[in-house]
Write the structure tokens for this entry.
Amino acid sequence: MALLSFVRRAAGAAALAAVAGGCEFLHPPTYVGGDPDQLLVHAVLLAGRDSAEVIVARVGTREPTRVTGAQVRIIGPGGTAVLSEVPNVTFECRPVSEVPGQPARRDTGCYAAAVPGGIAPGAEFRLEVDVPSGEQVRGRTVVPAPPAVQAPQGRLRLPARVTESGALRTVSPFTLRWTAEGPVSVRGELHRGWVGSAERICAASMLREGPLTAQPDSLPFRVEVYGCVVPPDNQSVRADSVEMRVSVTAYDSAYVNYFRDAEGGIPLESASSGLEGAFGLFASAATAFRHVIVYRQ
């Protein structure tokens, strides 16, 4: 469902990277080579949520192996959250559900808990992980403020026409404008699709218009709908309208460094971001949303 995502610097640099795939907007844990007993810890706190999840594993020889019996704590303004291990057979450990690419389900230690007082922009959180073998992992993050989306205001309705290939494409682009203190990502995700009054399973994407080096806080997009299917036979039909949710996400510096390094291949000496005592990541993010409705003329 991740149809388009990329990260831009708010001060005029080009995009840091482009991301594809996955229903999440978070780079997955990056498993680096080295000592198979090396600890891996991965967690990203998302503003507005009232819970957190932390992956605790070891590098392993071929695949990461789960670490059980760890003591995992997140300390914030509202108090201390003591995370409990959750069996992967009943829970998919995904540190955030709105922001690109957490693994669907891995045999890695997943620890989760409610965060007292929730996760708010500007709040400082500390991570403490103590494993039975005596190793200690420590991390710190300050949650960024969500981007201020200036356009579109509220829910946007866009007319669309059928292309020669049969897709439904918006007649003209719409411009997304925002302000943010640091790097952001933009992602479009199909929310719902309709054929007549019936809700259907559809495929759509956001297409960026113009060069990526355009204004760093303003980007034009078109929306293209490839079609919908009718279960159970999945017969292809043409959409009459779709609703797309557009997310604009800001990140702390630890996540930006992790994302950039992971795209280029992480050297062992820089395989930790926001952490001490393990490979991996402890970071935070904040997202603002807008909804775009595309309808056939």
Remarks:
- Residues 148-250+290-296 form one domain.
- Residues 253-264 form the longest helix (12 residues).
- Helices lie at 253-264.
